[in-house]
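Entry 14. Structure prediction run on the chain below.
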Amino acid sequence: MKPVKLSQIVLDAIAGHYKFGSDFFIPDYTVTLFEKDGNLYLRGSRMSDALLIPLSESEFFHRGFWTKIIFDKNEKGEIVDMYYDYYPDYKAKKLIEK
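Output returned:
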């Protein structure tokens, strides 16, 4: 796995709050993805901030869980959800900022 460099536009499109469903291991768990110094991080209430290693515009490697995080887009090209590759049935929907 070789990291790729992503533009600020891509990082900004991914950044936001994502909420898993009530059937997730921690029901309704919310995580925050944020950009800092050109890198993407994942923050959850039960974990330390985790640097995500970009493999493409839609796949990142999470070293803490030793797995990929994958982002899905809709037909307009907007990020709509994310999931861990070893649990594809548990998707976290991107929350719309108001």
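The chain is about 5% helix and 45% strand.
Filed with the rest of this week's runs.
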